[in-house]
Specification:
The protein is α+β, with helices and mostly antiparallel strands. It contains eleven helices and 18 strands.
Length: about 425
């Protein structure tokens, strides 16, 4: 089978591309990265420096006409987590549209307008997506599943914490794969018992095997009307019905709570630390230590709002410095810079306490060393990239698994 042609949206610094191209089975034919809030397009500059400017677009995806995006086999991207509610528009002949500025609807538009729809989708988001918004838990994901069903896709999803499969960072994200109705995987999924698929046959299970927990299977049908889902889904404000593993075929959802089943090698925070000399600015000054200790420590105190209203504030302590014999905590976008912070990583070394280097943050996301190093890009910006990025190892494993699945089912059909 030839390489699959990839369209990479919300490309950032290219985590999806790295993971897929590492397998040798995928070729990116078009990519888009646009940061709306900045004049300098830093992530796009890194992307272009690493992969070249050919077929790379650095404009707002909402302004790109679908006809200008080449046909592709698989559409991938880690799209921003927003409010996916549906708005009606009398002026719009399509009837239902999502709110402008919500980038999920850009994916939806491309899938709707493409005459040759991509046969596969491979998307990523924060796991909060499964239970947002707080007023109607699970509604946003229900809208996505219903709209993909309407476009002819079956979807399977899995919440994966990279560290639970031996990777160096505790980073929990929801990944979902979708298959168009004319693919062999779709037909196979349609004919397989949901429980059997999720626990045994799923594309996820090659690289990310699971066991069933005590919780039983939940099944339900999604309403056909998107606006009705937007207005009424889980109005009771109970827990989200979407568990960490699931499938949706023809609008019918089956979902299950699973736990990881992994006994392989584990990478720890100590494994990724730089061995050579460390720039002095990464060490914590003794004068700043009390501030770090306060921010990392537990608190029970009375605080005041700007309006003068007093309230009780409490939070637990964090491990300080970070445990070297564990995978790291999740990198967030505010990781860079010298200022003391509750969430930045700090490690104990023979020369004192220090923050993590950008190259170490890259290793925690399994990027190549110095992938984001570029003239004009600050260390704080490099840290920001890694707070936004995904774990390349997950994409690589899932990409390899998907390619195997496609090849395997094609052979079965041909024989």
């Amino acid at each position: 089978m030839q390489q699959l042609k990839v369209c990479e949206l919300f490309a950032g610094v290219g985590g999806f591309r790295l993971g897929l191209e590492n397998t040798g089975h995928y070729k990116v034919v078009w990519s888009n990265q646009w940061e709306p809030s900045t004049k300098m397009q830093h992530a796009s500059l890194v992307y272009e420096a690493r992969f070249g400017i050919e077929n790379h677009s650095n404009v707002n995806i909402e302004t790109v006409e679908t006809k200008n995006i080449p046909d592709h086999d698989i559409l991938v991207g880690g799209f921003p987590c927003q409010d996916y509610s549906v708005a009606t528009s009398l002026k719009n002949s399509k009837g239902l549209i999502g709110k402008k500025g919500v980038l999920w609807w850009s994916i939806h538009r491309i899938l709707t307008e493409k005459k040759n729809k991509p046969k596969y989708l491979f998307l990523e988001n924060v796991d909060r997506l499964l239970k947002s918004p707080s007023t109607q838990r699970g509604r946003d994901f229900a809208i996505m599943l219903r709209s993909l069903s309407d476009l002819g896709y079956a979807v399977e999803w899995r919440v994966i914490n990279a560290a639970e499969y031996g990777m160096p960072q505790r980073r929990r994200r929801v990944f979902f794969l979708a298959y168009l109705s004319d693919t062999d995987i779709y037909l196979k999924l349609q004919k397989t018992e949901p429980m059997d698929w999720m626990l045994n046959k799923s594309t996820f299970n090659d690289g990310f095997p699971v066991a069933q927990t005590t919780q039983s299977l939940i099944s339900f049908d999604l309403e056909k009307d998107l606006l009705s889902i937007s207005n009424n889904f889980n109005k009771e404000k109970g827990l989200s019905p979407f568990l960490n593993t699931g499938i949706c075929v023809d609008g019918k959802v089956s979902t299950l709570k699973t736990s990881p089943s992994y006994g392989g090698k584990r990478t720890l925070l100590s494994d990724i630390l730089e061995k050579g000399p460390i720039p002095s600015e990464y060490y914590i000054n003794a004068s700043d230590l009390p501030k770090w200790e306060y921010l990392k420590g537990s608190k029970k105190e009375i605080r005041k709002t700007k309006a003068g209203f007093e309230y009780n504030y409490s939070e637990g302590s964090m491990v300080f410095p970070d445990a070297l014999d564990q995978p790291s905590r999740t990198i967030i976008t505010g990781e860079g810079g010298k200022s003391p912070s509750r969430f930045k990583h700090v490690v104990q070394t023979s020369k004192g306490l220090r923050r993590l280097l950008p190259v170490e943050l890259e290793r925690l996301n399994m990027f190549p060393d110095y992938h984001t190093k570029l003239e004009g890009i600050s260390d704080a910006k490099r840290a920001f990239f890694m707070g936004n990025a995904l774990v390349v190892g997950i994409v690589e494993k899932l990409g390899a698994s998907l390619f195997r699945k496609i090849s395997e089912f094609e052979k079965q059909v041909q024989s």
